Amino acid sequence: QKEVEQDPGPLSVPEGAIVSLNCTYSNSAFQYFMWYRQYSRKGPELLMYTYSSGNKEDGRFTAQVDKSSKYISLFIRDSQPSDSATYLCAIGAGTYKYIFGTGTRLKVLA
Amino acid sequence: ETGVTQTPRHLVMGMTNKKSLKCEQHLGHNAMYWYKQSAKKPLELMFVYNFKEQTENNSVPSRFSPECPNSSHLFLHLHTLQPEDSALYLCASSQEGGGAYEQYFGPGTRLTVT
């Protein structure tokens, strides 16, 4: 079983839609979760960082962690064409150890 | 300059060439990383340095040679590469030891081996 799994997409949505991006993970001891946005041919940009369970909101973005289900989500409200990118989930699994999903490619249609 | 910078942004090299990738972090972090990103694959960790000392080498072929002269600079020396080494090479940094885990990436070097 992979340590973190992420649906690669692609996911296409109309402008203004609510987008839900998800990852599952295997180790219940994981506590640090990140979401990155990566535009084509660019490096990943850290979007959201959460510790333990619960929600964290930043503008149109909400990161949610459900530790009982080992499930993490990123919600994007009022999606814009500029949100079109690949979104990577990542786990801080220990000192120097970061585990990444394969990324979900999102396209927001104008 | 802010964050993590990488040069060059694009590199085309023949299989017999020698080249180097450079990374600099302006975040005061104590750990730096090299990753390889290929299409449809998760990021592959290549090397980790903490305070100039290499802490991990994930079975990377010897044609990739890292160098970390100080905690802000990281190099990846390349020689006799293969076409399958063509990928986006990403540098990242983090502050380890404080109990939190956040990693910041540079823009990457797009490498093409011909």
How are the secondary structure elements laid out?
The complex is a heterodimer of chains A (110) and B (114).
Chain A: E1 4-6, E2 11-14, E3 19-25, E4 32-38, E5 45-51, E6 54-58, E7 61-66, E8 71-76, E9 85-94, E10 97-100, E11 104-109
Chain B: E1 4-7, E2 10-13, E3 18-25, E4 31-37, E5 44-50, E6 53-57, E7 64-70, E8 73-79, E9 87-94, E10 103-105, E11 109-113
Greatest interface and its participating residue counts: A-B, 24 and 28 residues
- State the order of secondary-structure elements of chain B, H for helix, E for strand: EEEEEEEEEEE
Portion of residues in helices of chain A? under 10%
Low-confidence stretches of chain B: none
- Count of DSSP E strands of chain A? 11
Characterization of the model:
- The complex is a heterodimer of chains A (110) and B (114).
- Chain A has 110 residues and is mostly beta strands.
- Helix content of chain A is 0%, strand content 59%.
- Chain A has no helices and 11 strands.
- Chain A has strands at residues 4-6, 11-14, 19-25, 32-38, 45-51, 54-58, 61-66, 71-76, 85-94, 97-100, 104-109.
- In chain A, a hairpin with a 6-residue loop joins strand 4 and strand 5.
- Chain A is globular.
- With 114 residues, chain B is mainly beta.
- Chain B is built from no helices and 11 strands.
- Chain B has strands spanning 4-7, 10-13, 18-25, 31-37, 44-50, 53-57, 64-70, 73-79, 87-94, 103-105, 109-113.
- In chain B, strands 2, 4, 5, 6, 9, 10 and 11 form a 7-stranded mixed beta sheet that branches. A 4-stranded antiparallel beta sheet of chain B has the order 1-3-8-7, with no helix packed on it.
- The mean pLDDT of chain B is 90.
- Chains A and B meet through strand 4, strand 5 and strand 9 of A and strand 5, strand 9 and strand 10 of B.
